[in-house]
């Protein structure tokens, strides 16, 4: 989603003309890359080998799984940095007095989307980073512990159940916040309406983010 919003920022003057092409292309790339890296990490896995919980780390796949875990940690950090950069560029661009209506809409939409998804994105990045790093570190020292100690440490740092419990609650919060924001925008647009044209021109003046345009309206 951050990549899609970055494209919307970059091509904001004609982004709407792309339709669903950008979203479809990004989704396709994500699916292909996910299948590719998973296949690379687990292609040598022996399905008859006993594993800890649902872990894919075995003697055959341990090294590649650790590499994949640290790569995913890096992707999480890059995603958070990308979110910050996109938000900062949007805030800087939206403060300009003169730009076209399409650009203004995309900039405001970017800020709205980022504010909505940011709590879930941060929580997911933190949980996945903690899980990947602890899993990678503990797996690296597996030979230094007894089986009981290793399984105890693995269970103590296995935070996926907590993520599974909290993530739906955060998602519900995100959806409720989105609905409240939409209701608030509609309420602001229809406040103190003297005639039907006021709603139309008020929306346009806010999109232009331009005092002169607002005065003309």
TrEMBL record:
Keywords: Membrane, Transmembrane, Transmembrane helix
One Pfam family in the UniProt entry: 7TM_GPCR_Srab
Main localization category: membrane
Localisation per UniProt entry: Membrane
Topological relation to the membrane, as annotated: Multi-pass membrane protein
Signal sequence extent: none
Nucleotide-binding in keyword set: no
InterPro entries, sorted: 7TM_GPCR_serpentine_rcpt_Srab, Nematode_rcpt-like_serp_alpha
Entry GO terms, CC: membrane
Superkingdom of this protein's organism: Eukaryota
Membrane-spanning parts: 21-43, 67-92, 113-133, 153-175
GO molecular function, one term: olfactory receptor activity
Identification of the protein by name: G-protein coupled receptors family 1 profile domain-containing protein
Organism: Ancylostoma ceylanicum
